[in-house]
Amino acid sequence: MATALRRLAKCSVSARLLSFAGHSRGRRGHFARPCTVVAQRNFSSASTMTVDLDSSTGIAVMKLHSPPVNSLSLDFLTEIAISLEKLEMNKGCRGVVVTSALPKIFSAGLDILEMYGKSPERCGEFWRAVQEMWLKFYSSRLVTVAAINGSSPAGGCLLSMTCDYRIMADNPRYSIGLNETQLGIVAPFWFKDTMVNTVGHRTAEIALQLGLLYSPQDALKIGMVDELVPEEKLVSTATEAMARWFAIPDHARQITKSAMRKPTIDKLLSARETDISNFVSFITKDSIQKSLKLYLENLRKKKA
Ligand SMILES: CC/C=C\C/C=C\C/C=C\C=C\CC(=O)SCCNC(=O)CCNC(=O)[C@H](O)C(C)(C)COP(=O)(O)OP(=O)(O)OC[C@H]1O[C@@H](n2cnc3c(N)ncnc32)[C@H](O)[C@@H]1OP(=O)(O)O
Fold this sequence. Notes:
alpha/beta, 2-enoyl-CoA Hydratase, Chain A, domain 1, 7-stranded mixed β-sheet, 49% helix, globular, disordered N terminus, binds ligand LSE3YFK7
């Protein structure tokens, strides 16, 4: 099943590129299994998330549910990317709210177990799926809002930064940021570019080098998130925020989004294979594997 999903993901890259600037309408036939929208019905087949599209508002809510921490494994990334692709293909959908179904955690970022002790081939396949998820979200024609209802380190922060707008639960126990350097790894250029596009160059420089994780209040101060609300109001605030974006004609908003993001997207598209081989050679180094091992042990010790 997961392999079939991944194959489908690979085939749909061209569809994603067409989706820029409003060319996506009426392309439902591109999929072997077009999704049928029923008001308030869940149409996701994956067990790791639910996707509910309200056809009266055009807003879908994607709730990530991959216990214990929504870490982004190869299969989970593929399911997320395909779920977004299905929404993209659906004329009735104009926006998506991404949130977590797990308590206290939005996403723990990339699944460290996908990067530790794996073959170079598997690491390459994993990295392609990370790229694909980023490309799909960053280039989405939809209005994307992250409703961050828990901690969101590294890849979790990246996922939220691909969205057009971020609302976080105002809970000082949660944190968000690109903390890669703390694991002894390096955020690749397109993580860095997404961060720079979100918070500006100087803040990104400090945040990335120190691998900082911010409290919601501090994340608001630096512009990593746009709004803080009490947790129980998160999804309702996200759907309300969506109304402001829906008030703008879709084509004007989509072309503007494309103009803002296209240079960053093109940079990865033109270096995709090199980026994969850089990742594979970096992550499979003995020294990096040792850092990851230590980090995993510390995570486990923290619990004991
Ligand atoms: C030259 C450059 C070229 C190319 C680029 C090269 C490299 C770039 C490479 C990689 C980029 C990576 C980006 C990432 O996303 S790395 C992942 C970073 N994530 C983290 O650091 C988060 C770690 N986790 C936590 O901080 C916490 O778990 C928490 C705050 C999310 C939740 O805390 P809790 O106390 O609620 O839960 P825990 O007890 O800590 O965890 C439960 C369980 O889950 C396991 N786990 C946690 N996070 C991960 C993860 N990211 N991947 C896999 N597994 C994870 C944790 O170990 C526990 O497992 P056990 O129950 O003990 O088995």
